[in-house]
Specification:
D-Maltodextrin-Binding Protein, domain 2, Chorismate Mutase Domain, subunit A, 15 strands, 13 helices, alpha/beta, six-stranded mixed β-sheet
Amino acid sequence: MTETALDAVRKRITDLDSQLLTLLSERRQLTNEVAETKIKHHIPVRDIKREEQLLIRLIKEGQKVNLDPHYVTQIFHVIIEDSVLNQQAMLAARANPGSALPLNRVAFLGDKGSYSYLATQKYFSRRPGELLEIGCQSFSEIIQKVENSEADYAVLPIENTSSGSINEVYDQLQHTQLNIIGELTHPIRHSLLVAKNTSLANIKTLYAHPQVFTQCSHFLAELGNVEVKTMDSTSTAMLTVSQMNRDDVAAIGSEAGGNLYGLMAIKSNLANQKENHSRFFVVARDPVNVPLQVPAKTTLIMSTVQKPGALVEALMVLKDNNINMTKLESRPITGNPWEEMFYLDVEGNVQDGPMETVLARLRKMTRYLKVLGCYPSEEVSPTKVAAANALAE
């Protein structure tokens, strides 16, 4: 193929890409109109049966034009997730009139390029108003910014699929009056970032947040004699390496974040678990109302009475009311040796009957109970189509 012919093909591809973007925008607008109907008639956001029928039809149509079923399914999983999250955001905005701000002041750990920064960008991209980023050097500083009205929201990492729960954040939540109003899960892709093109063997010093080192412990063990220096945040590690501008130092962070500091990735996928994700809480001074059409989670803390089986009895209240618990975490109670506070994430809305029953019963049988927040669940599980393999034959 001559260069002229190649240019012509590339121009055709560019034109098609532009058409795809226009069609995707039109489709999103139509799903927003669907959301208006759901709001009016109190219809749940997700209709799994319709999603399954949609995917089956699209897989069949895709096969007619030589598109692989897996390829079609992947594309429309992303489109369906976008539709669900946009509709949930619309319903949440209607349920909380006056909550939309012209300027969203958001406190998070680190600075531009940190994973908390990327999570902040992701979460507030679906919310109206401009974004003012407030980088902080500690979790306590983040909480204080919101408590003192210097920020409207805080984004806090709460757990990671590789390194587990972030206990310091749980301890902060135990002593704050702020409310959890949202959550998100963000993929964590660790890369080795350098200021100058160099080899892995030449690296003598590594900079990263302690959690990052934990998540990449297998990679560190393979490196051998390399000095490890912990930093307050991933962004601080990247800034340090950028300013040093040497070929024997490196930071561990996201490639996207490294680009903001002029760093390049010389090795990627460093985490022990290749499917590495972090979950974040979004907190604010005031709670939010979650419409019953939107899947909701509730996070609460409780302290049980000191007797055998007390925790089991409390958890049976969830089972008796068909409430699914997605997380149970224990933390020591400050000043009370050998006593623990339990953190629970459950699938349920505090305005719904079963959850109201659960909370009423738990208040009677526990020494302490506090709802930290009821918020929309943003974990959109992909629609599964059992017939997909058969259709591919």
